[in-house]
Amino acid sequence: MSTPNTRLTIFLQQCRNRIDAELERQLSASGNGSDRLEQAMRYSVLGGGKRIRPALCLAAATAVGQSQDNAVIPACTLELIHAYSLIHDDLPAMDDDELRRGRATTHIAFDEATAILAGDALQTMAFGLLAEAPGLDGQVRLAMITELASASGHRGMVGGQAIDLESVGKSLIIDQLERMHRHKTGALIAASVRMGALTATKVSDDQLAALTLYSQTLGLAFQVQDDLLDIEGDTTVIGKPQGSDLARAKPTYPSLLGTAGARDYLSQLLHSSLSSLDGFGKEADILRDMAGYVVARTH
After folding, report:
1. Cα–Cα distance measured from residue 93 to residue 86, given in angstroms and rounded to the nearest whole number
2. What is the pLDDT of residues 64-122, one digit of tens each?
3. Given a cut of 60, is residue 161 above it in pLDDT?
4. How would you class 170 by CB atoms within 10 Å of its CB: exposed for 0-12, middle for 13-18, buried for 19 or more?
5. I need a surface site. Which of 218, 235, 250, 290 has the fewest CB within 10 A?
6. CA 198, 204, 208: angle at the middle one, nearest 5?
7. pLDDT of 19-73, one tens digit each?
8. What domain range is 248 assigned to?
9. Which CATH number does the domain housing residue 236 bear?
10. Total domains present in the chain
């Protein structure tokens, strides 16, 4: 009988293989445009990454008794949105980072204009794929488009990034910090789980509410661990400069709560996230494993 760690390792590897193969197929089929732009898109999407958001999407489909097949394209669109956000976050006008996933950021590897266009193209590609996702009826596709638009736009990720930029050098209270990260990080993680659940035609309101609570709590936990890795991680492992948030005077959980306090809060979030799945059986075990992985990851 496999242990949770073994089970998760196998699942994540299968997920990466499946998602990467589909992303490769979709990016190869885009064609007929600028070769340099398409190279930048491929560089940004296929250059590594943990595929946490697609994995959550596939795991959520399993949790509601649905085959993962219909969740593959929605899962890929989440990764495309995530990749676009990283390209733009790294730009000189934003975080001005030169290293991402252990190699040059897109605007360094290509140029700033190409990076902006690559991000734009990946964003629109995501919605195009979702609009034509096979195996899903029109109402489900529309619900997913609405979900992804809300999570990635000014009510979600983009809004959170704007708050982040406005908060540099300022002192925030914990409620303000959480508001920022519920938008910037948590919204797309929540959408990942909800979109996976929406592939099931018989998902109940109670199931969707429980999965939403799980994902929102997990999104905050993800950010707390990110903040801890910024001060404790190794640049060669985390794939970006260690201490970059501190250098920019960005508000973080450790800066507000202290390192020990941030770790205590991380434990509370993990407990809350797992508790929200109490109404599910073994079909949600991968989601439970994912919660433990998110708070214990080293990169």
Report:
1. 13
2. 999 999 999 999 999 999 999 999 999 999 988 898 888 999 999 999 999 999 999 99
3. yes
4. exposed
5. 235
6. 60
7. 999 999 999 986 668 999 999 999 999 988 889 999 999 999 999 999 999 999 9
8. 4-296
9. 1.10.600.10
10. 1
Residues composing the chain = 299
**Residue-wise over 230-243: b if at least 16 C-beta within 10 A, else e?**
beebeeeebbbebe
Do the beta carbons of residue 102 and residue 48 sit within 8 Å?
Answer: yes
Helix residue spans in 64-186 (DSSP H): 72-89, 106-109, 112-131, 138-152, 157-167, 174-181
Q: pTM, whole model, 2 decimals?
A: 0.91
Amino acid identity for residue 206 in this structure: D
What is the spatial distance between Cα 192 and Cα 130, in angstroms, rounded to a whole number? 13
133, two tokens: 């996702």
- Token pair 């040059």 is found at 104
